[in-house]
Specification:
Blueprint (H helix, E strand, L loop, with lengths): L11 E9 L2 E8 L7 E3 L5 E3 L2 H4 L2 H30 L1
Antiparallel strand pairs: 1-2, 3-4
InterPro entries: DUF3727
């Protein structure tokens, strides 16, 4: 939920940890991930998209569609891995 025990915002959420050579490693993901969109211009140069472009309904729709597709692919891969473990 992005809050630690004292109700203060946390910077990230631990997703896994491991021990190696006496050290404890922890892998975190941001609790509020940053999303940015880059656009390639006619010269092939990438630039971060302007806010005006990100408010365009066609761009918003394309981002939503791609995000949903990626979520479905990840869900299918997870389901396949879980079913594979049961066999």
């Amino acid at each position: 939920d992005g809050q630690d025990i004292d109700g203060l915002p946390t910077e990230g959420v631990e997703i896994t940890c491991f021990h190696l050579d006496g050290s404890h490693f922890m892998i975190y993901t941001p609790s509020d991930p940053l999303l940015f969109v880059a656009v390639k211009d006619g010269n092939g140069q990438l630039q971060i998209a302007d806010d005006d472009l990100l408010e365009d309904p066609a761009v918003i729709s394309a981002i939503d569609e791609e995000t949903e597709f990626n979520a479905l692919v990840e869900e299918a891969a997870l389901l396949e891995s879980l079913l594979g473990k049961e066999r």
